[in-house]
Amino acid sequence: MIDLFLKLLLAHVLGDFVLQSEKWVLDKMAKKHRSKYLYMHLLVHLSLLFVILQFNIYYWMGIILIVISHGLIDLAKLHAQAFIDARFNFFLDQFAHICILVLVTSMYVPVELSWNWIFQPQTMLFLVTLVCVSFVSSIIMKLFIGAWKIEEEHESDSLKMQVNTLVF
Fold it and tell me: Are residues 31 and 61 in the same domain?
């Protein structure tokens, strides 16, 4: 079960975060269902699913379900942006996508409620890596950076900072 879900999740993450430019996002926000980038975004997801599932036609129904629901979820998010907090809207959107991925996975593989997979060596390696990258590395960086004393900055000595808004 976890293998199929991870493949679907990889396709989703690549399509939503790696292969979608800010230009596409802004155009979709402005034009909603009239944005050509919404449909290009769905085409990217369709292509990724075919590639990651190795063009296996066995998964055709799941692929169609994922792509159609992805479009509907994105449209709902775009129309909700006017009256829902942007951060909440983003997390709600991603939660809905993940639920669809779980549903599609359960269409093809029986759902196991076993937690034995957590204790597999690959999972343990992943968890150790995750903890090291997210927590240990920040402590190490703090130790390295702490070796230099930072003198008080004068506003005339520093560069002007521009604040850009981050949009998903």
Answer: yes
- Among 99, 8, 22, 123, residue whose Cα is nearest residue 62: 8
Q: For residue 161, is it within any domain?
A: no
The amino acid that residue 83 corresponds to is F
Nearest-angstrom CA–CA distance, 146 and 168: 34
100-137 pLDDT, tens digit each: 999 999 999 987 777 787 888 998 999 999 999 988 98
pTM of the shown model:
0.72
User: Where do runs of H (alpha helix) occur along the chain?
Assistant: 2-13, 22-31, 36-52, 60-80, 86-108, 121-131, 137-145
d(CA 32, CA 30): 6
